[in-house]
Hints:
The protein has 14 helices and 5 strands. The N and C termini lie far apart (73 Å). Helices cover 60% and strands 8% of the residues. The longest helix is centred in the middle third of the chain and has 19 residues, at 96-114.
Amino acid sequence: MNLLSLINERMSRFSKGQKLIAAFITEHYDKAAFMTASKLGNTVGVSESTVVRFATELGYDGYPKMQKAMQEMIRDKLTSIQRIEVTKNRFGDGDILSSVLNQDIEKIRKTIDETSKDDFNSSVKSIAAAKTIYIFAVRSSAALASFLGYYYSLIFDNVKIISNYGETEIFEQLFRISEDDVIIGISFPRYSNAAVKAMSFAKRRGAKVIALTDSMTSPLCESSDYVLIAKSDMASVVDSLVAPLSMINALIVATIIELGGAAEETFTRLETIWQEFDVYRNNSEEEKIER
């Protein structure tokens, strides 16, 4: 049962204070999901201990578990307007800079704890061995696809980035995908229907399917051979992509190491080209300007 079903089933057994909590969560779970036990208690007029007992009554091992259940309910359902409201409630007039940065740090910690090392290593091997590497992401996740695609295009000559296409164009880009290929699908709440369809299509064609997403309950996982969890659960009008980008950095580094000498040769050739065409500014040029 989800949280609301549990509340509905047990409503008759609740105390007066617990019924106040239940009513507030039922009507405003998008706000309650990011309140501390103390703040939720103050909001409905009960003590913090009553809130904790309420969570236990529902079968959760403490308030944080119930709070996580509320966050799971809303992570892919909040509209932009609701996200703005939640952001105001969470940060208010406080130190927004420190709060946001600290939450991003916590997401990276959770990513380390929750992602599968086996899936990560298998993903790297599949990418290194693929005939063609497809990278799929749309909307705000398209920036991640662009970053990953930039570096993979330096390493490989078989990379296709699919982003910001209409549904017809997406499958035109994918129709040659086969069992020799790999697709990396990237999507976070609110999940992209296009990403789910693209991953399913690639799976049916026999390709290795890698999902970069925020949870094992993500719809991308249904068609995936390997899942890379990167936490992105801040209910804000702006999607937090810090942990996903760190995961992508790790993928790139691991791929270079997996390729060994071949990658070193590629970058040696690239350095020669960059120097020949003055791609990067060097110290000697800066010294000339100063003189």
